[in-house]
Amino acid sequence: MTGTPKGSLLEVRGLKKHFPIRRGVFSRVSGYVRAVDGVDLALKQGETLGLVGESGSGKTTTGRCILRLIEPTGGSVLFDGVDLLGLSPAEMRKMRRQIQVIFQDPYSSLNPRMKVGSIVGEPLAIHKIARGTDREHRVADLLCKVGLDPMAMRRYPHEFSGGQRQRIGIARALALNPRLIICDEPVSALDVSVQAQVVNLLMDLQEEFSLTYLFIAHDLSVVEHISDRVAVMYLGKIVEVADAESLYRDPQHPYTRALLSAVPVPDPDAKPQRIALRGDLPSPADPPPGCAFHPRCPVAVEVCSRLEPKLLDSGGGHLASCHLVHPDGAGPPV
Amino acid sequence: MPLAPASMSPLLEVQDLRVEFDTPEGKSRAVNGVSFQIREGETLGLVGESGCGKSLTAMSVLRLIYPPGRIASGRILLRGRDLLTVSEPEIRKVRGNEIALIFQEPVAALNPVFTVGDQIAEAIRVHHKVSKKEALAEAVRLLRLVQIPDAERRVREYPHQMSGGMCQRVMIAMALSCKPSLIMADEPTTALDVTIQAEILDLLKRLKEEFRLSLLLISHNLGVIAGSADRVAVMYAGRIVEEAPVRVIFAAPKHPYTIGLLRSVPRLGETGRPARRRLYAIPGTVPDPYAPEAGCPFAPRCPDVMPDCRREDPRLLPLEGGHKVACFLHHPAHPSTGTATS
Questions:
Q1: B301: closest chain A residue by CA
Q2: For residues A106 and A4, which has the higher predicted lDDT (pLDDT)?
Q3: pLDDT at B327
Q4: Which of A21, A133, A156, B293 is the least crowded, having the fewest Cβ atoms under 10 Å away?
């Protein structure tokens, strides 16, 4: 990102994760899957940054690298000025009090053999913050905060619906009073009516505890709803980032335009102006040269297959990486 | 949106279908008196949230309900013939041949150890006496029909060599292989990315026109339904609570559940929005299928609930214009009719 926004809580610079591909009896490394390939992000205190992209774009890997649940190959992750990648495991564990995560699948992210009280109280136990009745009080308080009956702590996860389980996951993430929460597709597995409840809850909690969210999702309408700013990922790279309003009203990158045009609209009279993309997502093990999007781009020109475009500002903090958008700042003709 | 098809004879008619599950926790009525029709060349969209019984309804049509589930009662008439009373060999002829099914997970629905060509050819040879060679040639033709590029080469590929979208095209090719009159597509695009989803929906629409197919499109995504269905049935807790032509259901929904569902969908690009509005959310959760309470199943969550709603379950009754709704607010005989605040 050009220039460092003042007061960033999280700043990711040149983040890379290359997974080795091993072949043969000796597991020789024959190549790399470039899941995340040079991602720059910045989050201000109290804001929500939406991270969207299709499956395989690297958005989940980015989230996990920030938490060091996956060790990044390169780059830096500055949290409140401290580079997380330079921390020892013990220091990182301490740091995780401030950075928590909510996972996509409320069915597999809660231990079925633990009671809800232990699940939500576990972070408090690990970090030796509260014990005994004090811990119990805190857990009851957290369950209330996420809209569950405190008596839920005596029950097991399977006794709850998907939406309620996601609330349990949120209570667990809140237990340590974190400053940043990485929400990895937190509502994708939920039904529409329940999804709305959880989105509202996340927005309320953000206000109450001045939380900062990195909201990873593939549903563009949900992301628009909850985010202050939105970043679009394609094949391990950010191709566009802007204020939510600006990105949805005036998308610059041809990929963002195609993505937005494909969202089905709940209105039978809507005339879809869909921009078709050719072919499938290329393999991140063998990304195309130049702009990674050029083989599928409806407006690609000769230079796109040779030179990789930079993520540049086209005014008002709206960044896009497309040869047709820069340098003149005008959008490509579609 | 195509106009309502001229032919009005129902191809499929489901009458008062009930599916029950007997489990140690008790008996649940997963499908509780569902009736609907699908006409020739028509797409009926079946919407509802997880557990409402929409997939079970489709599986019942082909008698694919296995213990502890069972079809307790009802009639399923395909061109007037009751599929619930025909013999096992008869229903096997119906499956794939007259009614084809497309599933949510295309990669899981295909057999990983056979080429896609072999799998399509097998589907053809189950129902028709043709040689393997002829069946494979037909498979290539079908792959072209579903717009798979380089069909001659890809017919020899295995499912893992294809993307999710390509696998779903193969599933559609397989569904078309025996020229069925009805395709039931159960969340056909839910596992796919939006750009691929749009392509698959376009393909289904085109094939439906071309072959005058009827389509039962099951989806939880109201956007998908809005773009593809002619008529829509909304399911809640094992019942159809509202049914109407697609424009009517989106422009003038009547049932409080349908209204709530439509309001809770975040919409793209509502410009001039105040930053980060709250979404409308239906309070509460779906009722426990093992502990059904008396009255309308939506009553505990309904903003317009009346005393009667907690005593009696409203039937699905017709209003004008092919609109049906199961709600006392709209029942002609009910004293409260017309007082709906929605």
A1: A193
A2: A106
A3: 95
A4: A133
Is the CB of B222 less than 8 angstroms away from the CB of A192?
yes
Q: Which of A134, A35, A102 is nearest to A75 (CA)?
A: A35
Q: How far apart are CA A150 and CA A144, in angstroms?
A: 6
Judge contact between B168 and A285, C-beta under 8 A: no
Distance from CA of A287 to the nearest CA of B (A): 16
Contact between chains at A196 and B280 (C-beta distance less than 8 A): yes
SS3 B199: helix
Chain B residues in contact with A225 by the CB 8 A cut-off are 266, 276-277, 279
pLDDT tens sequence across B32-47 = 999 999 999 999 999 9
Query: What gap in Å lies between CA A329 and CA A286, rounded to an integer?
Result: 30
Cα gap A84→A11, rounded to integer Å: 10
CB–CB contact B163 A280 (8 Å): yes
- The model's pTM is 0.87
Of B193, B246, B273, the CB nearest to A268: B246
Instruction: Give the integer Cα–Cα distance in Å for B48 and B55.
Output: 10
Instruction: Give ipTM to 2 decimals.
Output: 0.82
* Contact predicate A178/A207, CB 8 Å: no
A319 DSSP β-pair partners: A241, A313
Say which DSSP state A269 is in.
T
Q: Using the 8-state DSSP alphabet, how is residue B318 labeled? A: E
